[in-house]
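Thread: "does anyone have the structure for this chain?"

Original post by V.I.:
We have the sequence but no experimental structure in hand. Need at least a predicted one for the grant figures.
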Amino acid sequence: MNYFEHHIGDYDQATAHLSAVEDGIYHRLIRLYMAKEKPLSADIAALQRLVRAHSRDEKAAVQTVLGEFFELREDGYHQHRCDEEIARFQDKSAKAKRSAAARWNGVREESEGNANAYANASSEHDAIDMRTHSEGNAPRARPQTPDTKHQNTPHTPKGEGRFPEFWDAWPKSQRKTDRKKCLAKWQKHRWDSIADRVIEHVKAMSKTRQWLEGYEPAPLTYLNGERWDDGLPDGVTESRGYDFEGAI
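Reply from O.Q.:
Generated one for you, tokens below.
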């Protein structure tokens, strides 16, 4: 991970009693934890070296912070708030990969469909050429001109797929605009394949305090950012108490 959220209020409440050295060491341990996306080594000396704790006070601060904010298990030192953030990040990454794979499969199917259509058209063209050649060598019959004046090419209007379900699920507000652009975006990325997930996310978000208070994004902004991969934010629908031991 190259980025993680730092909840200043939670952190300050949980660490107000730490010395400047202990606070700095805690920051370094958290950054090390998040960068590696796994628990910290149980080797205290190795940890002290990794967080550049060289003086007696700095080394003592490592042990103090580990004892207060981390839990030693078989695989190393765990910090449960870090574990939650890493799990959320990895889940979001996995969803993004599945979404990209779904879009790629849609493009590939379209390409294969175009290739098959071209092959069928070529075969039909060859058959017409063969038939024309055979008919040219046959005794001439009375020429007939087909009546094409009243023949109409059937036209099937392009449907909107499941986009209307997405649009209907979106709460009514002044931001609910640009339907045509949203539809074009939806069709371009073939999001019918993940419509259930997108629509369920919109329905869930519409019940959060953030959206209920009018802070929902515009639908086009939501689609451009593929916000359904963000998951549901923590503590939006109800006040979340300070997590003193798990603050980051």
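V.I.: this helps a lot. Residues 69 and 245 are 6 Å apart (CA to CA).
O.Q.: and Residues 161-234 form one domain.
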